[in-house]
Amino acid sequence: MRAQVGDHIHIHSRAVGIDEQQGEITEVRGSNGEPPYLVRFADGHEGLLYPGPDCTVEQRPKNR
Predict the structure, then answer these.
(1) What are residue 35's phi and psi, to 5 degrees?
(2) Sorted alphabetically, which Pfam families does this protein's record hold (predicted)?
(3) Is residue 1 a part of any domain in this protein?
(4) Among 1, 7, 18, 64, which is least packed by CB within 10 angstroms?
(5) pTM for this structure?
(6) How many domains, the chain?
(7) 39: burial class by Cβ within 10 Å (0-12, 13-18, 19+)?
(8) DSSP letters of the chain?
(9) Which domain holds residue 21?
(10) pLDDT at 52 over 80
């Protein structure tokens, strides 16, 4: 998985009753866009994330 600052990450629910989470990547700490990522989640908290197979990255729109 590769990402850059400004991309959005989605953590999909793995079980019934667990809400999906999403946030914005504010810092990429791995080399060449690899994890870990510092993420600001929709509820305002920040955390260091090593994404698993239940995560997807949505790239930020490119400026034209």
Answers:
(1) -60, 165
(2) DUF1918
(3) no
(4) 64
(5) 0.84
(6) 1
(7) buried
(8) ----TT-EEEE--SSTTPPPEEEEEEEE-SGGGPSPEEEEETTS-EEEE---TTEEEEPPPPP-
(9) 8-58
(10) yes
Q: How confident is the model at residue 60 (pLDDT cuts 50, 70, 90)?
A: confident
pLDDT number for residue 64? 52
Whether 17 and 11 have beta carbons less than 8 Å apart is answered as: no
Tens digit of each residue's pLDDT (9 = 90 or more) over 24-37: 999 999 999 999 99
Residue 64 lies in a domain: no
Q: 61 pLDDT band (50/70/90 cuts)?
A: confident
Flag whether 3 is in a domain.
no
What residue type is assigned to position 23 of the chain?
G
